[in-house]
Amino acid sequence: xxxxxxxxxxxxxxxxxxxxxxxxxxxxxxxxxxxxxxxxxxxxxxxxxxxxxxxxxxxxxxxxxxxxxxxxxxxxxxxxxxxxxxxxxxxxxxxxxxxxxxxxxxxxxxxxxxxxxxxxxxxxxxxxxxxxxxxxxxxxxxx
Length: 143
Description:
Elements: E1 2-4, E2 10-12, H1 20-30, H2 39-47, E3 50-55, E4 61-69, E5 74-82, H3 91-103, E6 110-113, H4 119-123
Parallel strand pairs: 5-6
Antiparallel strand pairs: 1-2, 2-3, 3-4, 4-5
């Protein structure tokens, strides 16, 4: 899937175009939820996920998101990252909307994400707080 905007940004799901080394650098050094994540972990997570990347008019990758899904009942949007110099241009919302649209044909029961501070970004793409959060549980693991 390739989608373009009038301002020159292009969104792609082409795995061969994805710069995994760059994604690793972003996540492991600048994304508070993934600080210190190893290159091997990033590579493995990319292999097991649907990947979305945004490129600027010169072809440089400037944003990333991945989706973990069974393509039948559930998906989790995670590792959404936009390069600081490109923030404030709606790229995060565009990514979230592209994920939503890409997953729509699967008719999933639930698409989740977790965010500390970007609720308004995802709300623009249709995400909302979890109803009945008391129904959800998490398995605490070490590491």
